[in-house]
Amino acid sequence: MIKAIRGFKDILPSETAIWQKVEGVCRKLFHSYGFSEIRLPLLEETALFVRSIGEETDIVSKEMYSFPDRKGLGLTLRPEGTASVVRAFIEHKMYARSQYKKLYYLGPMFRYERPQAGRSRQFHQIGAEVFGLAAPSIDAELLVLLHDLMVELGLSNTTFYLNSVGCQECRPVFKKVLLEYLDKKKGDLCFDCQQRLVKNPLRVLDCKNEACQSILQLSPSIVEYLCSACQKHYAEVKSLLSFYQLPFHQNDRLVRGLDYYTRTAFEIIHEGLGAQNAIVGGGRYDNLVESFGGPATPAVGFAIGMERVVLALQNQNIALDNQQRIFFVVLGDEAKRKVLPLVRHLRKKGFFIEMSYQGRSLKAQLKEANRFEAQYALILGEEELAADKIILKDMNRSIQEYVTMDKVEEILEGKMASFIKNEK
Ligand code: HAM
Q1: Are 245 and 365 members of one domain?
Q2: Is it the case that residue 317 has pLDDT exceeding 90?
């Protein structure tokens, strides 16, 4: 039997309601913050990711799904969305039309990581990117948006972590100091960090290994080496967050796993998720557009990990706005012909309706209605047909009443309205 490949999951109908809820809340909020959607290809030239994310990062060095196409062009299944948005921003000269641009995207990303709870090889992100704004107020606005999003989703136990990773001017100074410090303790670092020391020393800062952690306790902090412009930017972001009364923690070890960041870097952690607990990652990347041949354009953005948000919501047993279900029980061909236009009309009005497609007995159809978890069954047999009435059965309370055919819609509308009121 052929099964889905390791790290690639089906999202089953029983789960999709929660996915749709998250997507819906995000779309709504993004639109009110002025973002418009961009849909991007899943495949890009490999060079796009190598040059943006960085050759020495874990993503590029060991996690990409890369292969040559039939003509030998190196392609990669996108491991993230930012690089593609940057490419599209430049390719379509979006900078020429307005002073700044706010874009969002959603869809699958691919990383060859070791699958575990909250980590898969195909996963989904909802991301947002802002181009053309250097002001700290936009960094703060994105964090406020994310906070509003958590509240709207009903997601509790989240913590916002913030850092500044400096710029091309001050980061090399810090890198040098850090390297000097770590080099002295090289023998005590884990094997991976010894490699990182040569290739990407900043990555040592977020190593989870205990021995490395204890060495890092006394390591130099990046915030002490920020140039005055980066310091000012960071201070302003923090002051705005305080103004918005948004709680956050400073974490001067937060460096992120992608090389393009400058200044602001942030993550949101969900406390209940175990090892893979980052549900959002983002930050500023002021040099990326220019490095791909576009005009110098500051940029900032984030991506939400959908699987992890869904998992956290499932753990919290978040209730979904349920639609009331109605089942039509129809006995005989004539009754069916009478009911079909009504069913069609009610469905067009937005009612969630099923009916029995086979000519089964009353008992069998009521069983079907139960399996469908119908709140109401509408029953039409020969007797009701002759009287131009239909039985409305409340399936939970097992009580029923006769209603005339022309009143069915009105009565159902009333039931739905009181249901929605009670749900709230
Ligand atoms: P990232 O931190 O690599 O950032 O990914 C963002 C989020 O995607 C993570 O916080 C996590 O929730 C989710 N994620 C990452 N890898 C996996 C995986 N293997 N399985 C499940 N979820 C995963 C970026 O991708 C940047 N492009 C974010 C960004 C946008 N920065 C600026 N703009």
Answers
A1: no
A2: no
